[in-house]
Amino acid sequence: MREPVFIKRNTPKWKAIEENPTRDPDELTERFIELTDDLSYARTFYPESSVTRYLNGLTAQMHRGLMQSKREDASRFITFWRYELPLLFRQSHRLLAVSFVIFLAACLLGWLSAANDTTFVRLIMGDAYVNMTQENIEKGDPLGVYASSDQATMFLRITLNNIQVSFQTFVMGLLASFGTIYALFSNGVMLGAFQYFFYERGLLLESVLKIWIHGTLEISAIIIAGCAGLTLGNSLLFPGTYSRLESFIRGTRQGLKICVGLVPIFIMAGFLESFVTRLTLHPAVSLTIILTSAAFIVWYFIIYPIRLHTIRPQ
C-alpha cells in the first residue's frame, strides 16, 4: 500500500483516538492493539516517514494511558479493602450487634432443646450424621469426619457452599429481614445442638479445639452475612428520608459489598477446615489459630472501622 493511501485510510481513526480519549480499560486495550498494528506496518514500509514518528508518539501516549488505568484498577482494589469496606461496615455495626444477638440466642435455644429432648439432635443434624459421629466416637476419633474426604475436593465444596449460604442469608433480607432472621436462627440452633451433642459425651473441649479452628471464621462470616441481609431488609422497612426505591438501592449496594468482603474469609475458613482441622494438633496450636482468627474478625470488622471513621469521617 502506498503511503498516501495508508494515511488517508487511517487518518479518521487516528483523529478519533486523539480527540476522544477514554478511560475504559477494554476500549484502551482495543485502541492500543490497533495503533501497534498500524505502527508495525509503518515501520516496515515507511521507516523514515513522519507518519511513523507520529504513530510512535500516539502509541506511546496510549501505552501510558493503559498503564495508568491498570494502576488505578489495582489502587481501587486496595482502596476497597483498606478504606471502603471498613467505612461501609462502620455504618452497619448496630445491625451486626442485632445479628450476633439473634445467632447467640438461637445457639442457646439449640443447646437447651438438645439437653431436654434426646431426639432433638437427630431432628436437627439428621440420623446419618449422628450415627456416623457415634461410630467415630466408638473408634476413638470423634471428629474423624474432617479426615474422610480428599482435601482439595473438600476445600472446593465447603468454600462454595459457605459462599452460597452467605449470599442466601443476604438475599433472604428481601423478605423484610425475616428471611435473614430465619437463616441466622436455623444456623444458630444447629450449632447449639451440635455442640451439646459433644458436651453430653464429655467431648466439648476436644470438639471446640478442633471445630473452631475453621469455625471461628466460618461462624463469624455467617453472622456478618446476617448483618448484610438485615441491611437489605431494613432499607425496605425504614427508608428514612430517601424514597423506598432509593433506600433499597443503597441497602442492596451496601449489603452486597459486605458479602463480597466475606469471600476471602470463607476461602480461608474452607482451607482451614480441609487441610488443618483434620490434623492432630497440640491444644496450644489449635487455641492460637482460634484466637488469631477471632482477633482478626474483631479488629477488621469492629475496631479498625471505628478508628478509621474517627480519622476519615464519612
Topology at a glance:
Blueprint: H1 3-19, H2 25-45, H3 50-90, H4 93-116, H5 120-125, H6 127-138, H7 151-171, H8 178-200, H9 204-237, H10 244-276, H11 283-311
Transmembrane segments: 95-114, 165-185, 219-242, 254-272, 284-306
Keywords: Membrane, Transmembrane, Transmembrane helix
Organism: Nibrella saemangeumensis
Describe this structure in words.
By secondary structure, the chain is mainly α. It has two domains: 3-79; 91-311, no CATH class. Helix content is 83%, strand content 0%. It is built from eleven helices and no strands. The chain has helices at 3-19, 25-45, 50-90, 93-116, 120-125, 127-138, 151-171, 178-200, 204-237, 244-276, 283-311. Helix 7 packs antiparallel against helix 10, helix 9 runs antiparallel to helix 10 (244-276) and helix 9 (204-237) runs parallel beside helix 11 (283-311). The radius of gyration is 28 Å and the shape is elongated. The termini are far apart. The relative contact order is 0.11. The mean pLDDT is 87.
